Amino acid sequence: MKYDDYDEDEDEDEDEEDEEAEESEEDSLAGGETMFYMCPNECSYNVTCDKTTRCSSCKRAMNNKINHVGNYVDKEYTIKNGFVKDVTFIVMDDLVIQPMQALPGITILNKFNIKDIGTLKEMVVELGVDEGIKLLKASLQSKMVLTSVFLKKEY
């Protein structure tokens, strides 16, 4: 083959095919584990599992493969068991969330100036889209968010 007949585009296509083959081989070597990618410019700390996702900062494909450190957790395990074990949280009326151990009962009563324990009410609520929107609106207008959204009818 003469140099005149040499097609640079053809060579570039072959290089791209080789790179894609290497990448798909690397992906298959992962043994079914999720691969993670970030922006090649490292302009954000965003991570994706899809290397065609565009970076929110520079809009380049986030195709820079990164290594996961630690153990992978089986999705079925996290769905059934979750990550947090044997910890009870309290959600305050102003949406502050704290572990129950961090706040003794007396402290909570004093914080909200509660004199009569009979006025307290424990509730289990269903949180859907409508309730989420109401919580968002109430959080911008009041410090008594839970009261205004879930007990509003009673007051």
From TrEMBL:
Domain of life of the native organism: Eukaryota
Signal peptide segment: none
InterPro entries registered for this protein in UniProt: DUF674 (IPR007750)
Positions of the UniProt region annotated as Disordered: 1-31
Acidic residues: compositionally biased ranges: 1-28
Name of this protein: DUF674 family protein
Lineage, top ranks: Eukaryota, Viridiplantae, Streptophyta, Embryophyta, Tracheophyta
